[in-house]
Amino acid sequence: xxxxxxxxxxxxxxxxxxxxxxxxxxxxxxxxxxxxxxxxxxxxxxxxxxxxxxxxxxxxxxxxxxxxxxxxxxxxxxxxxxxxxxxxxxxxxxxxxxxxxxxxxxxxxxxxxxxx
Length: 116
What we know:
This protein has helices spanning about 15-45, 65-85, 90-110. The chain is mostly helical. The longest helix has 29 residues, at about 15-45.
């Protein structure tokens, strides 16, 4: 009498949904920090005086900040590609939406800096 072989256990190729959502929240926090840092670096590059209360910052252009935020807005969807390849679908969706939001903010900053 022979015994039948045990059926193979199904293989999970994707991330557990809770881990996926946790990764999405962590990456969104990192994205927010990177966008804030890029915005502040752009303001500094434009000549904004942060701690000088008597400085005249009215002539500071938002173009540099818009470009810096646009760079972050292009990098963020690249992480969505990596997350999608790792089958972390909630993370990929969150990164795509965050990247689009950053690009929208950058576009508004760049078009608003042209003046009226």
